[in-house]
Amino acid sequence: MKREIPILLVVLCGLAITWAFFSPAPMSRAVNDELLAWGTVFFSVAFLLGISNLVRISLKQISSRHPDWPYKLLLLLVLFGYLLIGAAEIHGWFGIPGGENIRRDWIYKRIFMPLQATMFSLLAFYIASAAFRAFRARSLEATLLLTAGALVMIGQVPIPSFFPFADWIGDTSVRLQGFLMAYVNAAGQKAIIMGAALGTLATGLRIVLGIERSYLSE
Amino acid sequence: MPSMALLSSIVDSLSTLGWSLSAKLGTLALTIQDAAPASVEEGWEGWHTIENQKIPTLVAVVFFGLVMFIAQRQAKAGKDIPIRRIAGLDALDEAIGRSTEMGRPVLYVPGIDEIKEIQTIYSMMILRHVAKKTAEFGTPLIVPVKDSVVMTFAEEAVKQGCLDAGRPDAFIPDNVRYLSNEQFAYCAGVAGIMNREKPAANLMLGMFFAESLILAETGFATGAIQVAGTAKQHQLPFFVAACDYTIIGEEYFAVTAYLTREPGLLGTIRGADITKIVAIAAIVIGVVIATMYSAEIAVGNTETPFQSFLQLFAPKSN
After folding, report:
1. Domain boundary among B260, B277, B305
2. What is the per-residue pLDDT for B223?
3. Closest-approach residue (CA) in chain A for B117
């Protein structure tokens, strides 16, 4: 029964959501929304589990003087500090007028967002280093990739007018780039999308029909 | 009651800090109220009908389901279903073996999407197999997660994998780590684990977005063997460029069948292949008919595509 009941629940929920997708009946929409609401409630409550995991592991590392313990201490200070500032702003603690969000907003916009942007901007360097390795002409396939990559790149940038045949090179490279992206690249991408869509459908059916059960405990 | 007031205060604080539990519940309640039918009779009205524009989807799903069911029955009856060698999947064992030899952990990154994404669900199934292997070899397995629900699934998958291997003691709860709900904070956390704990194998299987290349390049810089797998086509080029092995698109959804060789699962893979052949045939026929039809329209002929198609085989009258 420990396995059968969860499988039955999965099958029933899967069929209800599928029915809601195909049927125009208001009841099917209501069932669908109700199930999604339960899911959102689970997600929201599980957030506390995530925080407890983070705090538990950090406290263990601090108490055992793990080499990273100062970072863990900083993490906990920031986590609870931000929580405290938020609570103080909402409830008007420590002489702060209630209902404000100036401090939280400042921390978020002046510290957190620049840090996120910094991580994202690293992508430019990583793309350069990955492209350097990928575009080495070691085989026929790699040479084709290098040629196609070079053509697409040339097609994306303006050719300076002092170059000989600048207009011709500009027009031709734009056309070649367009051809490669619209036909060769799009065809490859659509093949992958089609395969992935069928794989998704097969996996969905396997789970909904109870064929795939490896997500369940024994 | 003071305790209720305290609880209410905590929930208020959480909701305003972006963890909008109460706000979400309120919005959902309104949504359900709006969607709920006025009466039971009205609610069930049209329950047996299908929206017109969704009929082709239903036909395709039913056809696909039937093909899959027949192929699965054949497989269970003992029909041999060959499955081609997928280098990326064979490399999973190689990567774990390498980590064991080097005495370093295996890092498993299940992507950054929520559990409702099918790729994340599937990643949890693969994680169970990986956890079984690492438990058999006695190699530590680190699983950093971005979503707290995924964390509970990951804990269960790793625990179950260790049980499958007969090594429940191999499960280390602290190795399934919730890092952050923010994309780049999570990314920074995983990159930090790669640099500090130096895993010998990085397995990145699931749904990835802009962080894919940052993770793959950081892993490459640490010298780890890297196996990546996703059905997200925009991230595949990054993984192909930066990882040793890449599991592409549909291969990703064949992992459990490939690893377990369970006839029921192999049958579903065959069913998907048959459907793909039918889809390819339909696309080719569609392209031919559409091309012919557009040519006929251009010369002012208004025959239907099917009539035009038949005309190709009609005897010539001289």
Report:
1. B260
2. 95
3. A200
Q: Do the Cβ atoms of B64 and A129 come within 8 Å?
A: no
CB contact under 8 A, A46 and B148: yes
pLDDT band of A45, cuts 50, 70, 90: confident
Q: Is residue B46 part of a domain?
A: no
The verdict on a CB contact (< 8 Å) between A25 and B45 is: yes
Q: Which residue range is the domain that position B297 belongs to? A: 53-83+261-318
Dihedral angle at the C-alpha atoms of A138, A141, A146, A148, nearest 10 degrees? 170
Residues of B in contact with A57 (CB under 8 A): 174, 177
CB contact under 8 A, B160 and A34: no
Nearest to B65 among A21, A198, A205 (CB): A205
Over residues A163-197, the pLDDT tens digits come to: 888 888 888 889 999 999 998 999 999 999 989 99
Distance (Å, whole) CA A207 – CA A213: 7
Residue B248 backbone phi and psi in degrees, to 5: -105, 130
For A110-151, write each residue's pLDDT tens digit. Answer: 999 999 999 999 999 999 999 888 888 888 988 998 999 999
Which residues of A are less than 8 Å from B210 in CB distance? 120, 123
**Cross-chain Cβ contact A27/B241 below 8 Å:** no
Q: Are residues B206 and B285 in the same domain?
A: no
Residue B48 lies in a domain: no
Q: Are residues B68 and B93 in the same domain?
A: no
Residues B228, B110 share a domain: yes
Burial (Cβ within 10 Å: 0-12, 13-18, ≥19) of residue A130: buried
pLDDT of residue B228 exceeding 90: yes
**CB–CB of B13 and A215 under 8 A?**
no
In whole angstroms, give the CA distance from residue B205 to residue B225.
14
- Which residues does chain B have within 8 Å of residue A33's beta carbon, measured at their own beta carbons? 28, 31-32, 35
- Please tell me the total count of domains within chain B: 2
Q: For chain A, what's the residue count?
A: 218
Q: Which of B212, B245, B260 is the last residue of a domain?
A: B260
CA–CA separation, B102 vs B139, rounded Å? 10
Task: ipTM value, please give it.
Answer: 0.89
Is position B245 within any domain? yes
Distance CA A115, CA B214 (A): 15
